[in-house]
Design a protein that fits this description.
alpha/beta; about 30% helix; globular
Length: about 130
């Protein structure tokens, strides 16, 4: 990084039906971060023509266990809008959160209704960029 380059203060990036959490996102120390995230997810679910809303948390530096509750609430919001929530995260993060109950709430197995998986696990070194 260049000496004069400014670090972005953005916590979120939105691409069509994808909400991407940036490395600046940390709900433990940002009092309104969770509320902002839920507002964006609700808007995407209501306004997007896509059948699912993707929450990409693969770049977030911090993913505390409190996020499991937020992910459940995000799924409730998208379900109410008739959409499905898909979560994209790193495999190592999934493995860490699995012991805290993530696997019991979200599944990486194919769904019977033909929709995509609840979870999309990405390798730790490479993260897909939105189109």
């Amino acid at each position: 990084m260049a000496k004069d380059a400014k670090v972005s203060m953005e916590r979120f990036q939105v691409y069509e039906n994808v909400l991407k959490l940036t490395p600046r996102f940390d709900p433990r120390y940002q009092s309104r971060a969770a509320t902002e995230m839920m507002t964006i997810i609700s808007s995407l679910a209501a306004e997007s023509a896509e059948p699912e809303v993707v929450l990409d948390i693969s770049d977030a530096n911090a993913l505390p266990s409190m996020m499991i509750g937020m992910l459940c609430e995000a799924r409730t919001l998208t379900d109410k809008a008739g959409k499905k929530l898909k979560i994209r995260l790193k495999t190592a993060t999934y493995n860490r959160l699995q012991s805290l109950g993530l696997a019991g709430v979200f599944s990486s197995a194919p769904r019977a209704d033909g929709m995509s998986d609840d979870l999309e696990l990405v390798p730790d070194a490479t993260v897909p960029e939105p189109d």
